[in-house]
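Here we describe the complex-level prediction in full. Unlike the single-chain runs in Section 2.1, the four entities below were treated as one system.
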Amino acid sequence: MPESVPLDALVGRIRDGQSLAVPSDVGGVSMAATRALIRRGVRRLHLIGVPTSGLQADLLIGAGCVDLLEASAVSLAEHGVAPRFTDAIRSGAIQMRDATCPAVHAGLVAAEKGVPFMPIRGLIGSDLLRHRPDWQVIDNPLAAEPDPIVLIPAIRPDTVLFHAPLADRAGNVWVGMRRELMVMAHAARETLVTVERIVDTDLLADPQRAPAVVPSLYVSAVALAPKGAWPLALHGEYAADDECLRAYAKAARSAQGFRDWLDGYLG
Amino acid sequence: MPESVPLDALVGRIRDGQSLAVPSDVGGVSMAATRALIRRGVRRLHLIGVPTSGLQADLLIGAGCVDLLEASAVSLAEHGVAPRFTDAIRSGAIQMRDATCPAVHAGLVAAEKGVPFMPIRGLIGSDLLRHRPDWQVIDNPLAAEPDPIVLIPAIRPDTVLFHAPLADRAGNVWVGMRRELMVMAHAARETLVTVERIVDTDLLADPQRAPAVVPSLYVSAVALAPKGAWPLALHGEYAADDECLRAYAKAARSAQGFRDWLDGYLG
Amino acid sequence: MATLADRQTSLFLASALADVFRGVPTLAIGANSPIPAAAALLAQHREPSMRVSILGSPAHNPYTNGGGELFDYAAEGRLACFVLGALQIDGAGNLNLVSVGDYDQPTVRYPGSFGSGLLYYTVPRVVVFREDHSPRALVERVDFVSATGTSPPGVYRPGGPAYLVTGKAVFRFDREHAQFALQSVHPGHTLDEVMAATGFHFACADGVPAVTALPSEQDCRWLTGPIADALLGGYPEFARLLTGD
Amino acid sequence: MATLADRQTSLFLASALADVFRGVPTLAIGANSPIPAAAALLAQHREPSMRVSILGSPAHNPYTNGGGELFDYAAEGRLACFVLGALQIDGAGNLNLVSVGDYDQPTVRYPGSFGSGLLYYTVPRVVVFREDHSPRALVERVDFVSATGTSPPGVYRPGGPAYLVTGKAVFRFDREHAQFALQSVHPGHTLDEVMAATGFHFACADGVPAVTALPSEQDCRWLTGPIADALLGGYPEFARLLTGD
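The structure predicted for the assembly as a whole is:
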């Protein structure tokens, strides 16, 4: 049974050099834990955006926490490019594994199902495929005619980290419509969750909520972090803080502007 | 947008010779539609139990509706063997494709994801595999060492038929904890659903219910059928009618006993 | 600051996109795409049976199986039409959403390929939308292929580009010859201007090219009324631009 | 009609099964398995940190991803222990849940293989449970292999049989030699009786075999109290048998 722990104890489970999978900016990002990770000075992360990332990746990259990034895209959406990401790619400061959204999902589904790979349509002939030696083209063994198809290896992250609306005392976490968070939890070795609220009732005993609950079986630790996605949105809870994001997009264009902004954000 | 239709119109969409996938006896079986199908005299079905079947398969087999059965098991659970199934296997009246539960799920997931196959662990060396020429062993192309693994071809049923607690007027169907029903609907060409109740609200607009809703995108028709799983259980709604099932298990030991029971059941 | 011209351009492009969505049973729009989202709702107003989903807009998002569902839906062949943007588009229909220059040391880096690696291959009618019609965007050969315009025989390829809509023109994609063909030039632009601004060769019928249709009055009423209202949640600034507030 | 003997047998077998569940972090019980379900709850009473799931019992079912989740959970290596029944078990640990005689024209047909085709290969400690200890059930060679007892080198095989519990004895499975070894004989039974009733060869230490432990008084209080209560929903008749009502 997972414990409810302080935020610093939660991020203390993430070790330097590990693979860390995180949702997209609209999918329940634990910015509270991201701040704690940066404060702690985590290093050499293999960050996986499921299937994309944004502010979170940009902060971790800018703060020097990331060695390797795997994602289908990194951007600040309506606020433009992710400046620290773009800069790090151009300077070669991080290694990039470009993906396409369904390939990231496929790799996680393979891990969830305990199989070494999942097939996926598309990708044939692309440079995406050419730059991913871990993705392999085979001839579909079940087809009568030649039929090349790509196999995506299982993505089993050391840690999955996300923010959700609520958990119960037993560590069951309600994710609502963000079903990809459940796939991520199933796929990962450790799942760390920050939540807006911890309730005293059993979420699995609620016939309405239970179908959208990540059972505590898969949850390693939960930390309470109200407004934990800020300045990003948490679906059904609060909208993004567009003013803050706009300010970030502007400040982070330079390394110094980024550092100043980060100092303020870390508080 | 699917229509809410009378039960006979719903089963009228299922044509002789089609593949028809149905849930296990505890998973929301549309016994109301099963009765209507038998009354109509459907023939030559390729019935797929997801991943098992029970009373429903036994009735359809006993009534001569089934040519081919694909399932991991067919039984009446605590009421013993499924007598018409057992008799049909021994007499060769139906063709059987023995499966194992996760292989049925894997085939449906492959169809859901639009890929031709899914890998699955296990099965190597078994007679299950030997009797399934459609299942194929390959050497895992991503492994450094030889690693035989089974590929299960996609199962894309012509029709999926099940019973659920509720739908809305737009054809969105709430399946609660029976997530396999959602996979089935995603995998099938047509999804036909009977429900206990049709509500006037939009199920997708309800943040509690929506995560467990099969969107109308995947639903071909809905028919109202209160107590539509009887004498089987519908989770969260009513328990199985054990007396009725016990009577069935006894009567159906003989072909004549089955016919008499069926006449009474069809009413 | 938004101007009247921006508003007219948005109404026009939404209408031009809605024209090439015509007749599809199902249509999805990705996140962060205000003009395509407006166009999709316009197409649905014109054809109410059309099933439209707009990612990032809860009211127009019928998916309940998480972020992967759209791709499953497309891979199954259930999605008839999708809109993709790109950093570069070339004459063979290849898309680049990644970078300009050497991949390992790019001069320009874009966010990345998003879902194009699957959607461009599986959705029968992909509409490529790039407002910037310039030799920088429409190139002879893309620097990085996020997704190919066509595939050799034997490759599973039910989908691909069908139209390219820019700020100056509409092209159809001819799969057999793997090239774009000019369909219409937007009002106020000329064939010469389009040719000069296009970095790739395209097919073009003889004579004066057709002119892209303007939105009807009914279209404008829908776009500035119920559609602007519907977009207020996901795209508040764009919705205000449409209404002229 | 249930008798006192049935009740004693159920309590005893639940305890014998709970003994072989000892120390596992996670344990799942399939549907329609009353004695294993009671045994699992007993094991959890003995070791409260054990995570137990009982299919068909909503109160003990922690899965939220549909009928396929248990198999995913097992294939991932998260499930440490599972109980499988069978029509026939042979000396090499092969299981038959399908039929006796020719597969196409069987003399006996059973429901089918259920999840054995994956669970037997991926769950490290599978406990095979068959109350009927007879040459009909424990055979030299099964007529149909639902799942093999062992796999050749190079086959991914983290799981397999660990124990066989019957109405007369408990066997351990020796994977290296692909055979069962007698661990204990139940009180009231003898080694000779076990040998005569077992259709396959098994290893057996010299001397008088160990006797399977009886349930403790605490075990019986748990089984006839809170465990019977917990099983009332899924197994009402069995729960009443345990309480003696």
